Amino acid sequence: MLDEKSRICDSEPIHLINELQDFGLLIILSPQTKTIIAVGENVKDYLNRPPDDVLNHSIDHFLPELNDHLIELDEKLAQVKNNVLSLVFTKGKTIYFVNVRKIDAFILLEVEAEEERPAVNAAQDFNSYMASILSSKDLSQVYDFSVKTIQKLAHFDRVVLYKFKEDFSGEVIAESKKENIDSLLGFHFPASDIPLPARKMFENNPIRVVKRKADRILKIIRNREYSEFSFNLGGAGLRAPHPQHMEYLSNMGIDTSVSLSLVCEGRLWGLIICHNLKTSVPRPSVKNYLSIFANLVSVQIDLMLRNEISVSSLEIEKHLLQLIGKINQSPIEEITTIFEKEAPFLSKVMKADGFVFQWKGKVQTFGETPSVSVLNEILDFLDKNHNQKMFYTDQLGFLPNFEREEFHFFPGVLALPISFLLGCRLIWLKKELPRTILWGGNPDHNISISTEGVSPRKSFEKFIQTVKGKSEPWSKTKLSAIEGFLDVRDIIERKLLKEDLEQSLVRIKNSEEELRNLNQTKDRFFSIISHNLRSPFSGLIGMSELLLDALGDKENLDILEVEDYARNISNSADQAFKLINNLFEWGKLQTGKFKINRSNFELFSFVDELKFTFIPKFNEKKVVLKIISEENLSVHSDDRVIFSILTHVLSNAKKYSNRFDEVVCKLSQQDSMLKIDIIDGGVGMSQQDLEKLFKIESKFLNPGTEGENGTGLGLIIAREYLKLLEGEIRVTSEIGKGTHVNIQVPKN
């Protein structure tokens, strides 16, 4: 309903009111000929001519002092504030004050006159206060000094400084008054009290005087050509007030109102409003100096506001430049660390209760923030609606889908994207700040609508309203400064593209390396099959043919020869089986599907199995195997995999040991690791051979001390197993002195 009432007030065509107040003369000229086409009916009081003797004559006949000023008027109006040319000239002992403006191609002259002596006194009074306003140290001093000075010099009953808010409601922030009138200090008034047409008028008119109990309301007398024409008097100070305005003043008990525009930051910032309980219109000279004084106040407020903005913005911009520099010079992976360090400053500078850093969907919170579920809904809303633009509000709970009570605890939200990627932003949060607002009357009853029309409210008594669900508003100054941080998106985007390119190059390089390794593995695989597998099968075929030949000659059959052939066939088959088994085992590990099954086992039982399996095999070659273990040692790992690892390592130790050599296998605990050392005194290896041990592409196939062949896969398979167990293997060796293999596996 309030919005509907505001709309009604904003739509009133007050600029087309073609009636006049009686404290000055309005003259309307044709722009081409400077001919008078309309005048106020009080023209005789100023020009000593009735309307008919003035209409259709040039203004030069009556006010020749204006002639030079009306030449190239458009250029002159463009150079003055509010597009109003204020002129003062003297005729005899009378001073004339003329405001010249151009509206809808017509030239409007507003003329007021005053005796010379009072005008001089007014100038002296105001000049003594002009310099004082410039010496004020802060805005509150400017506000107080302004209203006190105007109230003192112009003898108003009450003078207030009224500041507009973003929604065009207003608050009285300074006041000077006499004892016989109520105070309005701290009172708020709805936007409909000064509707849009009135605000537009104040933007173009430095002063507006309204006399409720006028001696008479004057008509505009037009020439025949414009007899039915309604002139646009929106900027004219002499225009008669709207009946609702008259009723509004009557309900306040005010007879005369003088409003002075304060234009700051390029907009209508506020008004200095002066009230008299009785009819008392300031003299033209006083109004002229009131306008000048108000303009000086506007300039001083504007300078101080801009200084505050500059100081505040400079602090933010300086820090942001440093922050952007850090981001520009640092790797992209350090961006999280950078913002972690900057979070306290970023939160403090925006006077936020909490701060959130979101990077690639991951969220870090600082200070006071809402619950995870509430924050996730806010992030989802930002992703869908404000992914690449700044968003801010001080009343989140009033937005659609955020009406639930939990959204009222942090109604202040400011979000700023820092990348073109989804889910990369900075978020500031403010808690609810319940506050009490004093209204000049109930704001919901600001106007009443009936069949008779629209009427302003009757009461201006103090009305107290408690506002909830809102935070402290975000500073416009700081919002403008922080918005400059959007530029960091380009820097981060370049870094992300560079990172993607580098990762792509690494992936390509790794793919090439993997492909080379795969080809080498394939070549080695086929080499093993073609070479190593061919030898035992060739032996099998050769020995089988010899055995068949021997068995075919039964008369000369030699049993010892047959046994020798059979033994060689068995050895060849065993060698082929071992090779095939190792290839199968290695191939299974290459698929990446081999599963580790960890369980608890006691080391003493594991050692018993090792002894049972390997000591007989070592005895066959006359090599001594000693297996030593710590007692009462429990291990949580995959015992079958560890057994397979030791099978390959011990087989190598036996293979490269001479008869009667000793091989020691020692199992012990070192910190959290199971440590296994296999030490032999065999033939040993060169440094070149050590470098080939774990490379399948290297042809490292040295025969054993008794000509034993191998696959070259044993230690490679052992290391693959250890990777799965998160263990490691180290080999040291020296030719002629033996080899030491150290294996470490996590015990738990």
Keywords:
748 residues; alpha+beta; Beta-Lactamase; Heat Shock Protein 90; eight-stranded mixed β-sheet; seven-stranded antiparallel β-sheet; 29 strands
Outline:
With 748 residues, the chain is of the alpha+beta class. The chain is built from 20 helices and 29 strands.
Q: What proportion of the residues is helical, as a percent range? A: 40-55%
**CATH fold category name of the largest domain:** Beta-Lactamase
Instruction: Give the termini separation.
Output: 73 Å
Question: What structural class is derived from the secondary structure elements?
Answer: alpha+beta
Instruction: Give me the side-by-side strand order of the main sheet.
Output: 10-12-13-7-8-9-19-22
| Annotated CATH homologous superfamily of the largest domain | GAF domain
Largest sheet: 8 strands, mixed
Report the sheet-strand fraction: 15-25%
What is the name of the CATH architecture of the largest domain? Answer: 2-Layer Sandwich
Rg result: 49 Å
Q: What assembly state would you assign to the polypeptide chains in this entry?
A: single chain
